[in-house]
Amino acid sequence: MTTASSPLLVSGLRDIASEYDGILSDVWGVLHNGVSAFEKAHEALSAYRAETGGAVVLITNAPRPNPPIREQLANLGVPLSAYDDIVTSGDVTRELLAKHPGSKLFHLGPDRDLALYEGLDVTLTSEDDADLIGCTGLFHDETETPDDYRDQLARLAKRKLPFVCANPDIVVERGDRLIWCAGALGRLYEDLGGPLSIVGKPHKPIYDSARSHLAKIRGRTVEDAKILAVGDGLPTDIRGADSQGLDVLFVTAGIHAADFGPADTPDEGLIRRRLSEEGLSARAAIPRLAW
Questions:
Q1: Residues 164-193: pLDDT tens digits?
Q2: What is the bridge-based pairing of β-strands 103-108 and 122-124?
Q3: 3-class DSSP state for residue 280?
Q4: Which of 148, 182, 198 is the last residue of a domain?
Q5: Mind listing the pLDDT tens digit for each residue in 6-24?
Q6: Residue ranges making up the domain that contains 169
Q7: Which of 167-171, 192-196, 256-260 bottoms out in mean pLDDT, i.e. has the lowest?
Q8: For the segment 53-100, what is each residue's pLDDT rounded down to a tens digit?
Q9: How far apart are alpha carbons 201 and 228 in whole angstroms?
Q10: What contacts 177, CB < 8 A, 6 or more positions away?
Q11: CATH number for 55
């Protein structure tokens, strides 16, 4: 772990790569912005795998099973050489929903996420008939805000329906815009008194699943001290990894870029101050992931 007196900013992943047997890398904000891939980022992960023999598991709060995420990455130009496997919040959410067989589920989110429920013993139904809520986001995230859902969530919270949030992210970058995510609705639902369950970052279940995938790839358990988490989101990527005792490479030019000065030349003092204010730590920081 970096001390207060040692440099925090590194020039590339290669500066610390040899210290780790596995990487858990965020996807949105590190490998792409929802519109285009970051070439240097996927080249860095490919180089890490090729030059160190380490394994890379992508760990994302995407509220869908991993096959559509693989397809999305391929369409954006992220090569298979950049990673060994993917664990999504959707994958772990399915494990949770499987513990509620026979449920009548109200889906809160866009139709593109309906694959989340395929093969599960749940029946999709209306708000009035539901005994469980599955939330993957806003119905129209380009035009709506969480406040548009306040009345509906208040009705559901009054009935104490369990709310399973498939994506803990509050906002995410889509190109040069910030888009509201399921986590914002989950937070509002909980504020309104409803019971909330979240399995993605920063919560433990998705990290347990990612560790299991790393162990399968490497053929042995990988010690936490030999795992590096890479991410750009303080409340999800950084807090999640920190709470699990994992070293972190903080990508500063992601969702919090405006907080640290020029995106390509961030102020290390501002980064350290923000981490301290949040009660978090990082092994290293870099503007954008690169080798």
A1: 999 888 888 777 788 899 999 999 999 999
A2: parallel
A3: coil
A4: 198
A5: 689 999 999 999 999 999 9
A6: 100-198
A7: 167-171
A8: 999 999 999 888 999 999 999 999 999 999 999 999 999 999 889 988
A9: 15
A10: none
A11: 3.40.50.1000
- Out of 173, 198, 223, pick the residue that ends a domain: 198
Q: Which of 60, 120, 121 is nearest to 86 (CA)?
A: 60
Say if 265 falls within a structural domain: yes
CA of 225: how far to CAs of 24, 149, 279, in Å? 13, 42, 20
Residue 252 has which token pair? 């500063």
56/38 Cα distance (integer angstroms): 17
Residues 74 and 116 in one domain: no
Query: Does any domain span residue 291?
Result: no
Q: What 3-state DSSP class applies to 194? A: coil
Asked if 210 and 59 count as a contact pair (C-beta separation under 8 A), the reply is yes
Distance (Å, rounded) from C-alpha 264 to C-alpha 189?
37
Q: Which of 247, 217, 238, 225 is nearest to 56 (CA)?
A: 217
- Taking the CA atoms of 12, 15, 17 and 20 in sequence, report the sign of the dihedral they define: negative
Tokens matching residue 11: 């020039």
Paired strand residues for 230: 25, 249
Q: State the chain's maximal CA–CA distance in angstroms.
A: 59
